[in-house]
Design goal:
Blueprint (H helix, E strand, L loop, with lengths): L2 E5 L2 E3 L5 E8 L8 E6 L6 E6 L5 E3 L7 E6 L4 E6 L8 E9 L2 E4 L3 E5 L2
Parallel strand pairs: 2-11
Antiparallel strand pairs: 1-3, 3-8, 4-5, 4-9, 5-6, 7-8, 9-10, 9-11
Length: about 120
Amino acid sequence: QVQLVESGGGLVQPGGSLRLSCAASGSPFSINVMGWFRQAPGKQRELVATITSGGSTYYHHSVKGRFTASRDNAKNTVSLQMNSLKPEDTAVYYCLATITNREYWGQGTQVTVSS
């Protein structure tokens, strides 16, 4: 019943920027942690960033200083501003929401960083 819908992926040149958005719907409970994972071809899924309902954030060291997570609790949305993108950032990015100790996932959106 809980649904997360992602948008904002695409093709961008190295050094460029993209902004991913994720909207959660259908939850009768408040959302605790929201965040982003990514999975590149041939690699394990990797935690990129998380943000709590109180605004506390975590970033993987590889994106620290380049990516910024934010959320709008009233709208149950989370965004990931990605700046200074590198080819190594190429992956499918998945939105995460944690509700009553259960995890819910978006469908994923492709981010490709290439010249």
